[in-house]
Amino acid sequence: MDGGVVALELLGVLVLGGAWLCSLATTLMSTWLTMCPDLLPTVTFELGLWEACVIHEGGTQGCQPHSSLLGLPPDIQLARILMCLSLAAGLLALLVAVPGMTGVKSCGERLRWKRALRTAGGALGLAAGVLGLAPVSYVAHLTVERFFDESVPEVMPRWEFGDAMFCGWTAGVLHLLAGTLLLASGRCAGGDDWSRPAPVSAGYPKTRTGTGTRTGTRTSTRSECD
Prior knowledge:
Blueprint: H1 3-28, E1 33-35, E2 43-47, E3 51-56, E4 61-65, H2 74-97, H3 111-147, E5 160-161, H4 163-188, E6 206-209, E7 212-215
Antiparallel strand pairs: 1-2, 1-5, 2-3, 3-4, 6-7
Helix pairs in contact: 1-2, 1-3, 1-4, 2-3, 3-4
């Protein structure tokens, strides 16, 4: 197995794990949107997918979970659903990609099966990235529209981007990067004979055909990523 392929799959799995942790933090954080009214400069309001918080200047904080899913704004409802789907896809991508790594003993050491697992993990990583970027970008779009809405009086406070939004964008980009790396590791290793187990010796043993004896030879092709 080419060293470049091993590096690609290892980097892809590490980035995938970091992306999933960022997605988890984005989903749990209460700072999707923040608001600091001019009439109450000592108070900051925060809105997340699961709760709304009020933070006072002294550092005291009070949070209240959303009482009902149906009572939430449609954009928050959609964001909650899509972020949960992104977490599920990212976790499944990790569970599929790790057994497909070269250094992990699995699948009877069949290279063809390992390549299929890495490819599936890469596809799931791309799906997790799209599912994670969609709700964050949608909420950001609506927030910008409402912020510059001229029909709303200027004295009315407006929601702004919170830290969770930037964390969500980072998670989505990392998921896309991880998925691309895992797919590339399978593509770069496509020149090998994937129908046989991983080689453990320099050649094949002698085999007997008919009345004669011949020594099997081994052929190999260079990786496309050399």
